Amino acid sequence: MALRLYDSATREVRDFTPLQPGKASLYVCGLTVQSEPHVGHVRSGVNFDVLQRWLRVSGYETTFIRNVTDIDDKILAKSADQGRPWYNLGYEMHRELDAAYASLNVARPTYEPLATGHIPEIIELIEELIAKGHAYAAEDGSADVYFDVRSWPAYGELSGQKVEDMEAAADADPRGKRDPRDFALWKGRKVSEPETASWPSPWGLGRPGWHIECSAMAGKYLGPAFDFHGGGLDLRFPHHENEQAQSRAAGRPFASYWLHNAWITTSGEKMSKSLGNSLVIPEVLKKVRGIELRYYLVAAHYRSHVEFSFSALDEAASAFQRIESFLERADSSETGAVPDAFREAMDDDLGTPGAVAVLHDTVREGNRRLSAGDSAAAEAAAVRGMLDVLGLDPDDPAWGPASGDDEKLTGALDVLVRGVLDERAQARAAKDWARADALRDRLKEAGIEIEDTPEGPKWSVN
Q1: pLDDT value at position 158?
Q2: What 3-state DSSP class applies to 55?
Q3: CB count in 10 Å sphere of residue 230
Q4: Strand partners, 459
Q5: Which pTM value belongs to this model?
Q6: What is the H or E stretch that residue 265 is in?
Q7: Gyration radius (Cα) of the chain, Å
Q8: What is the DSSP string of 118-181?
């Protein structure tokens, strides 16, 4: 079965046919670094990390670009409110974002360009659009430059809208626009903005609009045509619509496939800072491990809305712990090929729910074999292969080695637990069942679960 993905542009699941045989190119809109990343933010990072992992496993030489927007109206406003330079806020929040991705084992892309590092490419693209009659400089002396949406008849095709039904673009002062729906390509510097937040251009000092930066960066690193463009569903309009329009108006074919991940909601509303229901990653990781949060995000289909709750997160953590428990019982570090059913699920629009179901089926079969006194090495190898694809292998160094202190504590705890287990074994040998049960209950009260296996009792922290 060939890899098939839902293309938001055509609104259908399509076979993936790469522009270059054996290669895949992927551009994903990263975050605007204005504040700490929350669970809703990192979902996109995790989803597209799984995609690039699956592309590589499927044999594609993959180039993955994920940008960072480090200059923006919101960054300027928040930095002013906090009394700090805009670039200082952006830099700190970029580091927070990197830490959040690392805590969830989101692999680094091939390259992560910054908007502020691509001003020449942005200006060049704007000049192309002006020369082709698709953009114009405002006549009010503001140094603003706008894309003329009426000049591009296909405008609205990505989101399925008609220009006459659209509201005015709210990304710039409307006084310099020919049409209220025209959007900003270049924003002239306002007196209230810091001098450091502007660059020289043919139209005057200013900074790039939000949409033009991604077209310029995608073109620089992936060329005028590439395979996939991804991002959150909320970006489809106006951001992605505008990217596609300005790129194709400049004569660049741009993306062959558009992929969008759905939202994470709380109380039925999109998780966002404005709602006041953000759950920043460091706070969530006080309740569960990073690998458990990643499992929670991976287990849902990327196009399915997820209603976040800590009870659901706890259930996901328990489900993942059962996988870890099996791997400990199987005591095998080999990584094998993924089962055919897993591959079929992943090839079917990156069907992680079906893939995770195969994962748990394999764990159940492995536990059955272990309980019967048989080897489960084959099942353990398959489980590790599937976990590796999903970025969930507990032995992946990206999750970090245990510290020296942790290792000492684990060793000390093992000695103590083994002592209690030896007492329990003696009580059972003497048929003192009340004593054996009391010892088991004592360990359970301490959060330690005991499992009797053909190889002897094994313990784990619940």
Answers
A1: 95
A2: helix
A3: 26
A4: 450
A5: 0.84
A6: strand 264-266
A7: 27
A8: GHHHHHHHHHHHHHTTSEEE-TTSS--EEE-GGG-TTTTTTTT--GGGSPPP-SS-GGG-SSTT
